[in-house]
Structure formats: C-alpha cells, structure tokens
Specification:
disordered N terminus, six-stranded antiparallel β-sheet, seven-stranded antiparallel β-sheet, 471 residues, alpha+beta, 2 domains, Aminoglycoside 3'-phosphotransferase, Chain: A, domain 2
C-alpha cells in the first residue's frame, strides 16, 4: 500500500486529481442511492482528504476520497457548508464487463487522463485491500485501521458487495464478516460504533460486537468511516421476513413478540452501559419544540400535510401539558432509527439489532442524545404499518396484531408496556410519520400514501381520550 497523497486540509501532490474527476462525479454522485442531496445540482467539491491505497501505475489503482459536496441550499434553509462523502475510486485502463455497473466515467485530463474510474467496492481486489488493512491495523496517511484486541481476522475471505442498501454500502467477506462503509460522514463519535462497543462490554448478545473499524483525521473527533462486524450467516432480514409472511397470509405475532423482547434487552443493556437522564418540564418543552419545528418544516416541504397540521400539533401540546402537570420521563441512549429492516433473525430464531447510526439526516449531536425508549418503539410500530401497506389490499389487522404483540413482548422484559403511556407514544409516532412523509415525497413518491394515511389517523385521534386511557 502506498502512502497518502493528501493529508487533512493540505494538498501535497494531487492538486489536479479532483479537478480531473469533478465533471464525472457531478454526474455520477446524484445517481447513487446513498446520496442525500437528490433534486439539487452539485455545484462543486472541496477536498477533505485523498489517500492512495494502490498506486495507479499498474493494472489497478485505488483512491480513498473524503469530499465535501456543494449544492444550493434548500429554499428557506440556512446556508450549509456541504455534506462530506466517503468514496472509494478504482482506476483501470478499461473495465471488464463484470464491472460495467460500477462505471463512473473516463478521465479526460489530469494525472489519470485516459483511464477509467469506477466504484471500487464492486471489485473484489479493492475490497480485499480494506480487509487486509483492518487485519494488520494499518496506518496509511490519515487513515487508521483499528481492530479490537481480542478479535482475529483471517485472510483469504472472498468479498461480495451487498446491493440492497440505501444510505451506506456493505461488503460481506465469505460468511464471516460484514463491513459497513458509511457514505455521508461527519467528525465525532458515531453511534454506529459507540453503541455496539458499549453493548459488547455489557455482554449483550442481541447486537454483533464490532471486530474492527476505520477512522480518519485527528482525535478527539475523527471521522468514523467503516465498521466490521460478524456476519449472521443465513439470517433473515426482518422486513423481508415480514413481507414473506404477509404474502403467504401468515401472521407475524410470535416474531413480533420475540422482537419486542429483543428490543427491550438492548434497551436494558444500554441503560446499564450509559448514563440515563430525567426529562422534566424544561427538557420536555425542548423536545416538543423540536417536534413542532420539524412539523412546520415538513408542512412547508410537503403541502399535503397542511390539512392535518392542527391535529398533529394537538398531540405535541398534549405532551407539553402532561409535563406542565409534573409528569417526567427517563431518557437513555437508544437505537435511534429502529425498524424491521434493522433487525435480523438467525436460523436459530434469535433476533439481532443492527445499524445504530440513527437517522443520518439528523445532526450527530442529536443522534447521540438520550431519548425516551419509546422513540425506538414508535419506529418499529410504524414499520409494521409499512409492511401491512406493502400488500394489496392492505392488511391493517395484521399490523394491529403485530403492534400489540411487540409491545407485550417488550413488557415481558421491562415490566413496562409502552401502550400505558399513550400521549408520549402518539407524539413519537407522529414525529416519525412526519419524517416519513418528507422522505417519501423526496425519494419514493409512490410510497407517500402510506405515511400520509398514518398522519391522517394520528391527527384525528382524540388526545383527551389518549390521556384518559393512561393509568
């Protein structure tokens, strides 16, 4: 492996590299599923770091790039410095047919003129380079490949790129490890590494313990770029499993109950591992203000929400009123973006939770804040609703039974049924559904009716009745 050709903030020898890639990346980046800035043109790049992992003087070259991508701000939004993305760029004289889907383009000028550049994760050799660097705890310029001291990584594992993800990219090595490469990155402690490490120290078997990870930049707030974890061979993705059961007309009650127990075990371990806080009136006011601000922004972005805004606000106001009456809640570290697709069922029937990054669109500091555990529960309840609406005709009773079983399973471990706190649960369900409306409007308009139907139901629920049903 070669030495770095750029350190953070200082371009030493590759001043023309980004210039030569610029026109190709402007066209290629917006087409990637993990690119968050869809709908706005790319106007330029700022180079954060470029690291040469394989010199391009042979058959294959490999560059690791951290680039800040500049785009026009969303109307009404504050100026934004641009998101930072992690790219792995392969370089070849010409692409073999098997790598055709990975093509970025043909370079016309600069140090790579006349060569072809492509998304390197499609290619086994670059993926092998990453695993070998993690195995040997390599230091390559500003990149630090770390490995847990009690973990070993054997060589010779054959890599394959997983193609079903959206916000990040993953490579599976044999049936032993999975490497999650974060795409949109920020400096700081990333919960996708922080929380699984904490859970591993607690001996929580519901979350695969990190084996190795990739960092860049100086401490104490480096970029967390990738995490290597054990691969659960033969596991079923919770979303795909639920859809299969729906297609067969089978219920999902037993699995939902088991998943509720698994969620509760993770929450219990996180409460032991990391400090919890009490949310009183002042803290709840800030929480409700955040929900209200997100609702207002969503209404501006998606006018279809306007008829329901008043009803949705009433749910937040009901929560504010409870806080004013002296009610308080416990907040702790949680998953942050829990849904069926973040859960795996092993061949033995055990459930695992994965992907603790939180909602990537939200600031890192917010994703690391303690939250009431009901936030995760609301996310899972919304996921049951999504699954039930993925079939024709929709199956609302299927979702209702799953919701009840999940909450009952959660209560079996914690002794607390989330449904006994309906005002808080409803507020978090609304906050999640509003987020979904904005996401679907921007990325998957065909799915927009699903969260809109939930918004309509939640907006017309009587918050007074919800409060009266609270023990």
């Amino acid at each position: 492996m070669a030495e770095t050709v750029t350190t953070f903030g200082t371009d030493r020898t590759t001043g023309h590299l980004l210039t030569s890639l610029d026109p190709l990346l402007r066209e290629w980046l917006p087409r990637q599923r993990w690119f968050a800035g869809k709908g706005r043109p790319v106007t330029g790049f700022t180079q954060v770091a470029v690291t040469e992992l394989l010199p391009p003087d042979g058959r294959l070259g490999l560059y690791h790039l951290l680039l800040r991508v500049h785009q026009p701000s969303v109307l009404g939004a504050s100026p934004h410095p641009g998101d930072c993305y992690q790219l792995l760029i392969g370089v070849r004289e010409a692409l073999p047919p098997r790598l055709a889907p990975a093509l970025i383009g043909h370079v016309e000028e600069g140090p790579l003129a006349g060569r072809t550049v492509y998304e390197a994760l499609y290619d086994p050799r670059p993926a092998e380079v990453l695993l070998e660097a993690l195995r040997t705890r390599a230091r390559i310029g500003g990149l630090r490949f770390e490995r847990a001291p009690d973990q070993e990584i054997r060589d010779g594992l054959v890599p394959r790129l997983m193609t079903a993800e959206q916000s990040n990219s993953s490579v599976v090595y044999g049936d032993t490890f999975i490497l999650k490469l974060l795409r949109r990155v920020v400096p700081g402690v990333n919960p996708d590494l922080e929380l699984p490490l904490a859970l591993a120290r607690e001996g929580c078997a519901r979350v695969p313990a990190p084996t190795a990870w990739l960092l860049a930049g100086p401490d104490p707030e480096p970029y967390v770029l990738a995490v290597l974890q054990p691969f659960v061979s033969g596991a079923d993705d919770g979303w795909e499993l639920a859809l299969r059961e729906l297609a067969k007309g089978e219920d999902f009650v037993a699995e939902a109950r088991a998943l509720g127990r698994a969620t509760a075990e993770v929450h219990t371990a996180l409460a032991r591992a990391m400090p919890a806080v009490t949310l009183g009136q002042a803290q709840l006011r800030l929480l409700v203000d955040g929900m209200t601000e997100r609702l207002e922004a969503a209404v501006r972005a998606v006018p279809a929400l306007l008829p329901y805004e008043r009803g949705l606000r009433s749910a937040f106001e009901a929560l504010r009123d409870l806080a004013a009456e002296g009610h308080s809640w416990t907040a702790q570290r949680v998953h942050g973006d829990l849904h069926l697709g973040q859960c795996l069922r092993s061949p033995s029937g055990d459930w695992s939770l994965i992907d603790f990054e939180g909602e990537p669109a939200r600031p890192l500091a917010e994703r690391r804040m303690p939250q009431p555990p009901v936030r995760d529960i609301a996310g899972m309840l919304r996921s049951f609703d999504y699954a039930a609406h993925s079939v024709s005709p929709p199956a609302p009773d299927w979702a209702r039974h799953c919701r009840a079983a999940y909450c009952s399973g959660y209560a079996e471990v914690t002794g607390r049924d989330p449904r006994t706190d309906p005002v808080l649960l409803r507020a978090y369900e609304i906050d999640k559904a509003v987020y979904e409306v904005v996401y679907e409007a921007r990325h998957r308009p065909d799915w927009l009716p699903v969260p809109l139907a939930a918004v309509r139901r939640l907006a017309t629920s009587d918050p007074t009745l919800a409060r009266e049903n609270r023990p």
